[in-house]
Amino acid sequence: MASKFGGKADDLATLPKLDAQIILQELRQRYSQDKIYTYVGDILIAVNPFKTLDIYNKKVSNKYKEIVKSSEPPHIYAVADAAYQAVLGKGVAKPQHQCCVISGESGAGKTESTKFLISQIIELSQGNTQLEQQILQVNSLLEAFGNAQTVMNDNSSRFGKYIQIKFINGSVIGAKISEYLLEKSRVAMQNTGEENFHIFYYMFAGLSQQELQNYHLGSPNKYK
Questions:
Q1: CA-to-CA distance for 119 and 129, rounded, in angstroms?
Q2: Looking at the structure, do residues 59 and 1 belong to the same domain, yes or no?
Q3: What is the dihedral sign for C-alpha 12, 15, 20, 23?
Q4: Residues 136-159: pLDDT tens digits?
Q5: Which residues, 6+ apart, have CB-to-CB distance to 183 below 8 Å?
Q6: pLDDT at res. 127
Q7: Choosing a second label site near 163 at 20 to 30 A (CA), which of 68, 79, 100, 181?
Q8: From the annotation, which residues make up the binding site?
Q9: Is the pTM of this model over 0.70?
Q10: What is the domain extent for residue 150?
């Protein structure tokens, strides 16, 4: 059933009536139009498009710099901009620490949303590309040891991440990533159709036959 608002509501909180049915209809309508982002007040809903959309590039990034929220369509870049401007103290009494919570079901796109958020914050701070790559590449290392294939997601995070970005005078100078709630039991046991952490498959794919013999490792099929 199509939404009577036609998927035009960038912020669901502005609708005259709001209930579960209206929310689902409007999100479905927007999704069919490739509008994967929708506000609910200060909350940004992101629906995984499961395809590549041309909305994460330099041109789009430039549109979300020191903007008024309603001036551009909802986007993760707008959240990054609002947080960064508050860190600088623009629009508020004084600079304030900011916290962005990214939550959702497995496969919802939390990991990718985090990458886009960090990338835009570094872009806003006019940080160097090397620093951005260093921060983002740490994610790849953590994913190797903490992500695994599940029935819902081929790259599911099996742990939580708390990322702190460090600023001096508005410039990003580094980041600290803390992990928590690692699913340690996956090392010894996985559900049907699921796999162990990626790092073990990387190991077998990268080791030569001689190295496998040296480490007394057999076929990957012998291990869980």
A1: 10
A2: no
A3: negative
A4: 788 889 999 999 999 989 999 999
A5: 148, 158, 159
A6: 65
A7: 68
A8: 104-111
A9: yes
A10: 54-186
